[in-house]
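Sequence in, structure out. Go.
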Amino acid sequence: MTTRQAGRDLDTSRAHSARMYDYFLGGKDHFEVDKEAALLAAKAHPGLRVTARENRAFMHRATRVLAQEHGIRQWLDIGTGIPTEPNLHQVAQSVAGDARVVYADNDPLVLKYAERLMRSTTQGRTAYIEADVTDPDALMSAVEDSEVLDFDQPIALTLNALMHFVTDPHDPYAIVRRLLDPLPAGSALAMNHCTPDFDPETWNNVAEAYTNSGTPVQFRSHSDVRRFFDGLDLIEPGICCCHRWRGDGGEEIPDAEISLLAGVGIKR
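Output:
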């Protein structure tokens, strides 16, 4: 594993989305400020733990589908969060031992645990870079500097539960285009994104709780999420609530409880 460090200190004065997510997954790598913010959000919608679980399950399924059905062997995972096994590279390398993954996040705590937990197969490679998705030029420069991914071969860009933290003033659609532009044909975008469509009142309250805790969010409609995939060929079943994307049809969960739209598109 290789690592690029930015040398920032931990900021424990305000909640961070990656550490709140860790709390929802039942992890221990968060601070009191993150727990308090997560509890406020969960007060607005107690099902956020289910949302976090299904977000993770979608990542597993999408990774396997891209590796098994589309021959993808490289991933750029932005907003990876605090490592929770199995991590994306473990899922990918269970299908293809030579898979390569670059992780990116902007929390020094994620960096701390990335160094300990990310272990590649001998055939594959992993790397972690500390970078902010709202500065895509710097992020992609750091990815290229890591020399892990071959930009002549397809790369899957994964943006799971990330882009709703990028509000309109940052121009999220331009960011995704910038991230996709250097990727060759056959590459993929796999992402999910919170939506208020199924239960506007509840999810607007969740957005307010996050924003008031210092973590601005902007949940988007189905048509707005679809815009991220402009120019890509969506694979079946298109954009749907994430537990229905290639799910096993097991436990029936109302869409309104999860409210996380998911899709995978292939670049022409």
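Check: The two ends are 31 Å apart (CA to CA). DSSP finds ten helices and nine strands in the chain.
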